[in-house]
Amino acid sequence: MRGAGVCCMPAVQDFDANEKALFDSVALHWSLGRPLTVRAAIEQELLGSPAALHKRLQRLIAKEWVVAQIQVADRRAKFLVPSEKGLFYIEWLSAQMTSMQAD
Question: Which end of the chain has fewer CB atoms surrounding its CB within 10 Å, N or C?
């Protein structure tokens, strides 16, 4: 049954573990009301080198999991937020976890 749920989430197979860790960090900071800047995202040493994180971030943006936004208050920095697809994934994952707890 679990495998059936995964295939229902579009493009989740293209989401490798390293990209997921970076996405999770972006989503967590966003959910706390403190979205990461691109610079802060690529400076997370526990997730990899800045060059590797920059490549992963570019892949997440290209796969439409994350969006880099410029905010009016600070036009010098780009802030990372989950895209519509990323938000759908978070909601889907939450539902999967809730249904597993109910079983």
Answer: C
The domain made up of 16-95 has a fold known as: Arc Repressor Mutant, subunit A (1.10.10)
The ranges assigned to domains in the chain are: 16-95
Checking if the pLDDT of 11 tops 80, the result is no
Q: How confident is the model at residue 84 (pLDDT cuts 50, 70, 90)?
A: very high
**DSSP notation for 36-72:** PBHHHHHT-GGG--HHHHHHHHHHHHHTTSEEEEEET
How far apart (Å, rounded) are the C-alpha atoms in residues 63 and 86?
10
CA–CA distance, 77 with 91 (Å, rounded to integer): 28
Q: Average pLDDT for residues 60-64, to the nearest whole number?
A: 95
Q: Taking phi first (over 0 means left), then psi (-120 to 50 degrees means alpha), and beta for anything else, what does residue 47 get?
A: alpha
